[in-house]
Amino acid sequence: MSQAEVTTAAAARPAPSPLWALSLFRSEVGTVFRRWRTIALLGVLAAVPVLVGIAVKMETSDGGPAGHGGGGPAFISQVTNNGLFLVFTSLAATLPFFLPMAVGVVAGDSVAGEASSGTLRYLLVAPAGRTRLLLAKFTATLAFCCAATLTVAASALAVGAVLFPLGDVTLISGVTISFGEGLLRALAVAGVVALSLVGIAALGLFVSTLTGSGIAAMATTVGLLITAQIVDQFPQLHAVQPYLFPHYWLSFADLLRAPVYWDQLLDNLGLQALYAAVFGSAAWARFTSKDVTA
Questions:
Q1: Cβ neighbours of residue 260 closer than 8 Å, sequence gap 6 or more
Q2: Taking 50 as the threshold, does the pLDDT of residue 42 lie above it?
Q3: How many H helices and E strands in the chain?
Q4: Which single residue of 60, 87, 121, 141 has CA 20 to 30 Å from 151?
Q5: How far is the C-alpha of 220 from the C-alpha of 214, rounded, in Å?
Q6: What percent of the chain has pLDDT over 90?
Q7: pLDDT tens sequence across 122-178
Q8: Which helix (H) or strand (E) holds 261?
């Protein structure tokens, strides 16, 4: 089917109803979570807190505090006192690479995977429209961001409850709060971490519109992730670092202070929104003009 025939067919078909558009979103989300690759990624993410919890338990089996060597996030030493801190530690351990890599794989494959399998042109014949289809794929990727983050958090909470005591939470600023409020802060941290992945999701979606190879799109997205992480480590490049999507990722630790430090949290959310706007628009411009027969 040529590009002209696809355009003619799109112009001739009636506009889809809101219920049909909603079913498109449900279909895309279902497609993402039915793939074995997605299940495997979630399985790996769920295993990370188990490994972290066991490592901390073994390290402290001799009575020494966790993180006494000075490595790791500031709250890792609190894990042995309260298993809830395993949630924060696991999110800090997975956020620099594991979580964004999983999101990059899903986002990179979203459009390019359909193109490489030959199903993209048939999706465009359906009464969806390119804009709705692209929005549905981005929504499905965001759903995976939430699911991946909650998988890490839920696994860490379960492992923390089994291996360590639970109770009142002493924040890294020294203030003690109830366990219930600690759970609310853990949920807020998971929400911020999920939102921190919006930038890589939008970037991966854009990359996915540039190629017809799902593997190439996934590799490119992960490569950009690694490059951004490396650049963010060099002090000589401090002028560009605030504009890199991973720069403020660990700012979620400021939610574990009383009062909460909002500056870097808001900078992070604003930066992710900027990436979503810029690369989401670029993905739309590319996808709406893309020749699906190419």
A1: 254
A2: yes
A3: 11, 2
A4: 60
A5: 10
A6: 57
A7: 566 555 678 888 898 999 999 999 999 999 999 999 999 999 999 898 888 888 999
A8: none
Taking CA atoms, 44 is separated from 49, 146, 247, in Å, by 10, 16, 24
- Give 235's DSSP letter: G
Dihedral sign of CA atoms 188, 151, 273, 232 in order: positive
In 197-253, which residue ranges form alpha helices assigned H by DSSP? 198-208, 214-231
Give the predicted TM-score (pTM) of the model: 0.85
Give CA–CA dist 154/157, Å, rounded: 5
Residue type, 39: I
pLDDT score for 11: 47
Residues in the chain: 294
In this structure, what DSSP letter does residue 82 have? -
Q: In Å, how far are 28, 33, 135, 142, 241 from 139, measured between CA atoms?
A: 8, 13, 6, 5, 28
CA-closest candidate to residue 26, choices 165, 143, 154:
143
Closest CA to 279 of 201, 221, 215, 195: 201
**CB contact burial 215-232 (16+ within 10 A = b; e otherwise):** ebbbebbbebbeebbeeb
3 state SS of 67: coil
Q: 77 near 92, Cβ under 8 Å?
A: no
Contact (Cβ atoms closer than 8 angstroms) between residue 165 and residue 83: yes
- The strand pairing partners of 177, in sequence order, are 169
Q: How many other β-carbons are positioned within 10 Å of the β-carbon of residue 177?
A: 15
Q: What is the DSSP letter of 111?
A: H
